[in-house]
UniProtKB/TrEMBL annotation, chain A:
Xref: InterPro entries: AAA+_ATPase, ABC_branched_ATPase_LivF/BraG, ABC_transporter-like_ATP-bd, ABC_transporter-like_CS, BCAA_Transport_ATP-bd_LivF, P-loop_NTPase
GO biological process terms on file: L-amino acid transport
Gene3D superfamilies reported for this sequence: P-loop containing nucleotide triphosphate hydrolases
UniProt keyword annotations, A-Z: Amino-acid transport, ATP-binding, Nucleotide-binding, Transport
Protein name (Swiss-Prot/TrEMBL): ABC transporter ATP-binding protein
Family label: Belongs to the ABC transporter superfamily.
SMART domains membership: AAA
Residues annotated as signal peptide: none
Top-level lineage group: Bacteria
Record field: transmembrane: none
Organism: Candidatus Cryosericum odellii
Automatic annotation (TrEMBL), chain B:
Protein name: Branched-chain amino acid ABC transporter permease
Alphabetically ordered keywords of this record: Amino-acid transport, Cell inner membrane, Cell membrane, Membrane, Transmembrane, Transmembrane helix, Transport
Membrane topology, from the record: Multi-pass membrane protein
Annotated TM spans: 6-27, 94-115, 135-157, 214-233, 240-258, 264-282
PANTHER family attached to this UniProt entry: BRANCHED-CHAIN AMINO ACID TRANSPORT SYSTEM PERMEASE PROTEIN LIVH, HIGH-AFFINITY BRANCHED-CHAIN AMINO ACID TRANSPORT SYSTEM PERMEASE PROTEIN LIVH
Automatic annotation (TrEMBL), chain C:
Organism: Candidatus Cryosericum odellii
UniProtKB keywords: ATP-binding, Nucleotide-binding, Transport
The organism's taxonomic lineage, starting at the top: Bacteria, Pseudomonadati, Caldisericota/Cryosericota group, Candidatus Cryosericota, Candidatus Cryosericia
The name this protein goes by in its record: ABC transporter ATP-binding protein
PANTHER family: AMINO ACID ABC TRANSPORTER ATP-BINDING PROTEIN, CONSERVED COMPONENT OF ABC TRANSPORTER FOR NATURAL AMINO ACIDS-RELATED
GO BP of this protein: D-alanine transmembrane transport; L-alanine transport; L-isoleucine import across plasma membrane; L-valine import across plasma membrane
Pfam families: ABC_tran, BCA_ABC_TP_C
Molecular-function GO term, any one: ATP hydrolysis activity
SUPFAM superfamilies: P-loop containing nucleoside triphosphate hydrolases (SSF52540)
TrEMBL record, chain E:
Entry keyword S-adenosyl-L-methionine: no
Protein name: Branched-chain amino acid ABC transporter permease
InterPro entries noted in UniProt: ABC_transp_permease (IPR001851), LivM-like (IPR043428)
UniProt organism field: Candidatus Cryosericum odellii
Gene Ontology terms: cellular component: plasma membrane
Amino acid sequence: MLSVQNLTVSYGMIRAVKDISFEVQEGEIVALIGANGAGKSSTINAISGILPYGGNIIYRGHDLHRMSPDKIVELGIVQVPEGRGIFGNLTVLENLRLATWQRKNKAEVAKDLERVFGIFPRLRERVKQLGGTLSGGEQQMLAVGRAIMTHGQLMLLDEPSMGLAPVLVQEIFDVLKEINQAGMTILLVEQNANMALHVAQHGFVLETGKIVITGTGPELIENTHVRDTYLGG
Amino acid sequence: MYVIQQLINILQLGSIYGLIALGYTMVYGIMRLINFAHGDLFMVAGFLSFILAAYFKFPFLPTLLICMVVVAMMGVLIERLAYKPLRKAPRVSVVITALGIGLFLENFVLLFYPYPQNVPTLIPRITWNIGGATISYLQVLIIGLALFLMLTLDLIVNHTMVGMAMRAISWNRVVVGLMGVPVDRVISITFALGTGLGAVAGVMYSQAFSVIDPYMGIVIGWQAFICAVIGGIGNIRGAILGAYILAAAQILVVMVMPSTYRDVVTFTLLLVFLAFRPYGILGKPAVEKV
Amino acid sequence: MPILQAKNVTHYFGGLCAVSDFNLSLEKGELVGIIGPNGAGKTTIFNLITGVYRASQGQSSIKLNDVELVGKAPNEITDLGVARTFQNIRLFKDLSVLDNVRIAFYSQANYSFWEAVSCLGRYSREEERIADLAMDLLATFNLEGVAEEVSKNLPYGLQRHLEIARAIATHPKLLLLDEPAAGMEPAEIDQLMEFIRWIREKFDLTILLVEHQMRLVMKICERIQVLDFGVTIAEGSPAQIQNNAKVLEAYLGTEGVR
Amino acid sequence: KSSAALTIPIGLNAELTGGLPVVGASCKNAALMAVKEVNDAGGLTVGGKQYQIKLFVEDNGYKADQSVAVQQKLITQDNVVAIVGPNASVMAVPASEIAESSKVLMISPWSTNPNTTIDSKTGQPKKYVFRACFIDTFQASVDAKFAMNKLGAKRVAILYDLGNDAFVGQSTFFKNTFTQLGGTITDVETYTTGDKDFSAQFTKIKASNPDLIFLPSMYNEAPVQIKQAHALGIKVPFLGTDGWSSQDLITLGGKDVEGCFFSAHYAPDIATPIAQKFIADYKTAYGAVPDDVAALCYDSFGLLFQALKTAGKVDRQAVRDALATIPNYQGVTGTMQFKEGSGDPIKSAVMLQIKNGKFVYYSTAEP
Amino acid sequence: MKTDEKSGVQSPISYLRDHRGATGNNKLIVWIVLIVGFALSFAIPQFNIVNGYIQTIIMYVGINIILTASLNIVNGYMGEFSLGHAGFMAIGAYVASLLTLHVFPSSSSFFFFPLAVIAGGLGAALVSLIVAIPSFKTRGDYLALITLAFTYIVKSVIENIAAIGGPRGIVGIDKLTTLPWVFFWTVLSVWIMRNFVYSNFGRGVLSLREDEVASRLMSVNTQQVKFLAFALSSFFAGVAGALFAHLLQYINPNVFDISKSVDVLLMVYLGGIGSIGGSILGATIYTVLLEVLRPLGMFRMVLMPLLLVFLMIYRPRGIMGLRELRWLVPGQELKIVKRWRRKKVVNDANPAS
Ligand SMILES: Nc1ncnc2c1ncn2[C@@H]1O[C@H](COP(=O)(O)OP(=O)(O)OP(=O)(O)O)[C@@H](O)[C@H]1O
Ligand SMILES: Nc1ncnc2c1ncn2[C@@H]1O[C@H](COP(=O)(O)OP(=O)(O)OP(=O)(O)O)[C@@H](O)[C@H]1O
Ligand SMILES: [Mg+2]
Ligand SMILES: [Mg+2]
């Protein structure tokens, strides 16, 4: 579905991502794990068209090079950005509605809205509250909710569990599994490798801009290096 | 009659201020940019309407529409050429660029029209007499237009998808793209709307005061900026409210005391007002969660 | 005598009661954790203690060593000995690491405006003293190598360390840490744990900590207070909290701590 | 032959950009014309030698500090013998200080502020500063008398620009003279430079019920003001000052300014042969009737050339001395001669009326 | 002395890195420049080394440097957007001129002129409270409005006071501003502002620009810092105004309108925010360029803004952009890490001390 070939991302002189290649198959959850500054977000942002890059990214036969973010969304790639990226001056409802910019079918939008509120009842309570005043966890729910509203086929998630209460982390991962089963392909960037690798079919470990280990979820969980640094022994 | 006349005066002056202030607020609300070139685009619209009416003998409506379209296109062009390269730069760099663009427009027009020009009257001079006070068709038109545009804009910004996207852009431009919103296009629409409004103001102003000169954008532009901020910059209704308040203050001061004190008193009142409402009438401090 | 004593602290955002009748008592040298679901009001409590928000007056009382903090300006409270870090890192991004720390010495610089602008009197001596103190502090945090780096260019983990260093530069008695382990992987969290213990000893601190990483909370906190909807729902040792049914339901989830 | 030609450098310090571009442009036009005439005629004969005039035109941007810089530049870099300009008093006053301290002759065509030629420290006239126009006090008293005696006004209201020192002066002097003559000032209103809306002021003025409105303002402001007054139902006549004297007043004002009076430096329609030639030449060259500033600027050059001839040598001091004692110079704007030991000329003012889209001579006021 | 123990992170522009490696012998150069400059400032008018016009322009450059650097404190270092500098300049100009005209005897102006200039500065600093106090509550564009309103108020108040000339201004001010004085005041102002910026208070100002909430929580007394920054900035605006008045010999309220503020603003951002060196360059380039382009006549005013726009597009942070000229940074500041290391080596060698 998504094929990343020889991706390189640089910030001025610094190369954050160095020539990595990987693939995501339709219907999978793929985990991308790595320490702080490994280049995970850079990879994701390159796919979403926010960052210029070298190499090729092919999505369902479309070359994404030089495509603007909105065109990429149109193709069906949605991102839940790191730090959530909630629009603080918009209400919860407006945040959700904005994500449906490219959708014409009102009835489906309404259905998806109900679905989001079903998954996150807290959001329903807060529909009129400004996004900026939500707590961290509430914002994360909203961010995932927004991605659902965009109705893409491939969801890129950048550290969805950051700053969330344990119960919510569980919930979010449950939700991810659920939407995955409903047909969404997911590329998951996580620090919480434990959770991520348990839901993922495949995983990659990124260290200082390079993919160092590749494997299926269970394989990675068994890997000693992964156990030591990312799963906490 | 005296009081009624002054009230009409307030409405007319306030509406003129308001028409320009709307453009300021509009662009500010989205781009967080005080577009100091706005006053000068207003001036350009005035000259354009003069050229169309005096040389090509266009009637009012075509003149207004052409001015709106051309100036809106100029606004978009300026954004593309001068502001867009600065998307990643500090906010003030864009403000300074805007000041530069404004100065350029002034002096450029000055090259061709060093003399003030008389804009032909395009709107029938009908006046009505209400108990000794006079009000003209033009005044009614200006007041009506200001209120109409305010409501329309308010509708656009607060109740449409484009408006929502505009507000979202003001918060976080990058993430808006991830929602599938074509950011550059929305920004262009914003500038088109904002400067288009400035053009309406320019045309109406030229009709109301008939004499135009290349520097007219500065004085009235600064005043309109003040209105936009009093109302709470970025807030559409606030802009009109601020405009009427400034107009009322200026005229009331003249009414009750020697007009030499007008500026001192008006602006001191303004400072006192801001001491109590530091973010204007309808403005809110930027929500910042610590 | 407790070093920090908060009584009946209440705070509303418009109609929303973010914190209600919150009570807390910290003994000197303690390391206490506050946990609770997102939006429970934890950060708000930090903001109330440090004066960023003003607790509803009349009933609320927050005392540091018997000095009332409610109603004081944030910098006054900092001067009294409360320092904090932020949930979302708030370094002075465009300034150097050294400057970040030196700014926190603001009220410890002993020279006047006149001495500053004329380069006379205590100016040079004090500047040297502060610079050395700042460098010493950076060295203690192993940051001396990046002293002249612009802080926004530091790796995330180091930025967290720098935030703590900057807080300690204000010479606090009480340190408030808001999610210091956010975005860290387990190996890093273990290091951070050691680090927090170590600064507590080294700088003789009382620490109040908000965190969602149970790995950290359960291991280093001596006492935990659990908040939900602004109300304390449980209090006790990590072991007690881990088995508290209410907490399991509201916060930890059925799987408990992993 | 050009290399052998002797030249006399003369400076022009004008407000080509900024708030008063029309004044600057008229002044420059007249200056170029004056210089061209002389040069085309083979040059100026000074002390038996033929000189070409070399004109240095500088823009002061309608800013005081630039006016000073320009003045310095002309004097010290271009080594001019004398300077014409600046026109507006805000520029002319600081420039005059430079001229005075550098001992270089300066003639302001149009600065009517008394301070331009007076050393405010000593109260004595400046030695090197002259002007080609009458001063504000004279003009205002002419207007006041005219209002009272010719127009029969008893109750006058005043509107002026608080930010413009010339108009502030004219209003004050007008008020003094008019009340001394027994008239009543019903209302005094002000505005700030750049204002476009005067409705509040006129509404107030209307309520004070005057039978004439004294409106010392600029040619580009007066039409707007009068139109607004008419729109508010004010029907009394308006009386202006020399700020009005630009053809633009009529272009901009149209029917609204019809019938109004103002005091001016010269009357294009009853001009002397000298003036008629000037007007005709100016029209051919620039396609417009010369305004006051153009006429005064042309006269300033006329005075200067006359002084150069009289002096007999190209020397700053000599030229100055010659100018101070010029007898009855016949200029476009009338006969002039400088008061003993002063830079202010003795000359008359004219009252003009706007009739059928033209400035029409009405009466003359002798000093 | 590049310290690269850490790996992985490099900074694009580290403003401190730019003056890393600066050494003490810069001091010598600075002293030479100062002494030669001072000597020249006497010699130039004395022997007419350059003509009066160029002398005037040099003096404008000096005055503009003072104005630009002082506005940079508020707009660059503190990160506010003040539009009111002309207002403070006006106050300085009026106070000083009234003193030299009516109060101080004109005989010993050598002694009294500096007093008048200082008084002008103090007057402006005092009035700056009007702007400083609202700044406790609001910032950004609202403060921009307050400063703008302030300019209007100053102009209008002066126009309303007949005793100080009203709209007609003050004429006949003695020409006391001379090249040596301008040189002296420029050097002094730059030196004092430099000292301020590199002091505890200056760091406080910087922290306000970066993050006001964090800076209060890091014990910075933000009200004190704002107050000092505004006062210092306006003080030097007042000083510049005083010098300006005694150079022009004539002032009136129109001289200090918004366009004057805008001029200074342009110079600040041209040179670069948060950089005194930038202000010096910005003021010099802007002033000189305006004169150099004079022969272009009307086109000058079309060209200048275009140049500015291009500069902004290619160097959005101005010529210097947050960096500082090496010789303007106090030597002490440059040597912190080095000195500390040396000290540490010594201490480690004899732990007894
Ligand atoms: N805007 C930027 N300018 C310069 N360097 C950057 C920028 N953004 C990221 N970097 C650098 O690029 C590298 C990779 O960053 P990236 O954000 O992709 O890491 P990450 O794996 O997502 O880390 P984290 O877990 O902290 O989110 C880091 O060294 C970072 O310092
Ligand atoms: N400035 C504000 N205006 C309105 N509501 C606010 C504001 N700040 C916080 N809130 C609300 O108060 C509640 C408590 O917020 P707080 O930030 O204290 O939560 P928290 O416990 O720190 O959560 P998290 O663990 O997600 O950081 C939340 O519901 C939040 O939406
Ligand atoms: Mg990341
Ligand atoms: Mg929190």
